[in-house]
Design brief:
Elements lengths: L1 E4 L23 H15 L9 E3 L6 E3 L4 E2 L4 H10 L12 H10 L10 H8 L3 H26 L4 H14 L8 H10 L12 E4 L2 E4 H14 L6 H12 L8 E5 L5 E5 L7
Parallel strand pairs: 1-7
Antiparallel strand pairs: 2-3, 3-4, 5-6, 7-8
Helix pairs in contact: 1-6, 2-5, 5-6, 7-8, 8-9
Length: 273
């Protein structure tokens, strides 16, 4: 079954924070489709690119890789550390290690000492071991925590899982305003009585019985209420999916992007090793 969406929403300008998303694990269709939808909205294409590397905006340092890992966080350092353990590591990042360590420890977005880093990153992306290192870091940062949330809340529908993945990817996972756990908390507070529905699955939220479909609709309302521009395109797509009753998703989705082009999304990995 294919779903044709009339619009994928307004195509956002490429955001450095969301430049380059991946599929972790070919068995998770929800994650695969959610990352491709996010890529389509934020980048204008669905594919992942392990060699992306650029200077980010607003003092975030260098952003690189399939998930735009940052030198301001520990992400890039973790990727490089994993890659250094591979037999195929050729020393591409040795000269940058002291600076990467310093910036990760101090959450610095500085660029001093990183001249030539992007060239090394792009070159290393041709190595499967380097791509695998990126996948492992992204799995720990995104897929594992979301899977834990899905298990804790007893969510069963793939579309709800995809929306949570999208929220994690775009808004983050740490406990600050605008990120996944805060959004979930704000969503739960919207319910003051039992809410029945038609999804076939009931969540227990703060002692209340809440239909899963009604809960995820409320989560999208919370995200939209935050007014984060980069969220609006994917939110529109997921609202369309919900209104079409595809809570179980479809393995193939035909999406019309903002340019009017038909894009077919499927569950295949974004990065083939």
């Amino acid at each position: 079954m294919k779903l044709s969406l009339i619009s994928a929403g307004i195509l956002a300008s490429v955001s450095a924070v969301s430049a380059g998303l991946i599929n972790l694990g070919s068995g998770d269709c929800s994650f695969s489709l959610s990352t491709k939808i996010a890529n389509l909205v934020h980048l204008g294409h669905a594919e992942g690119n392990a060699g992306l590397c650029s200077v980010g905006q607003n003092g975030v340092g260098i952003l690189a890789g399939i998930f735009s890992f940052s030198t301001k966080t520990t992400d890039i350092l973790k990727v490089v550390n994993l890659y250094q353990q591979a037999a195929s590591y050729a020393g591409e990042f040795d000269q940058f290690m002291p600076v990467l360590q310093q910036y990760a420890e101090t959450a610095s977005g500085a660029l001093v000492g990183l001249d030539g880093f992007c060239e090394s990153w792009t070159k290393a992306a041709a190595n499967k071991d380097f791509v695998t290192s990126q996948l492992k870091v992204a799995e720990t940062k995104y897929q594992d925590p979301v899977s834990a949330i899905v298990s804790q809340l007893k969510i069963v529908h793939p579309l709800t899982q995809a929306i949570l993945y999208d929220t994690a990817i775009v808004d983050g996972l740490t406990n600050v305003a605008g990120v996944l756990d805060s959004i979930i908390s704000a969503t739960n507070l919207k319910f003051t009585k039992d809410v029945l529905g038609t999804s076939g699955n009931t969540l227990l939220i703060n002692g209340l019985k809440i239909d899963e479909l009604e809960w995820v609709k409320a989560l999208l309302d919370v995200r939209q209420g935050l007014g984060i521009t980069k969220d609006l395109g994917t939110i529109k797509i997921y609202r369309n999916l919900l209104s079409n009753g595809l809570i179980n998703l479809s393995p193939v989705l035909d999406v019309v992007d903002a340019a009017g082009s038909l894009v077919t999304l499927n569950c295949s990995p974004l990065i083939s090793l």
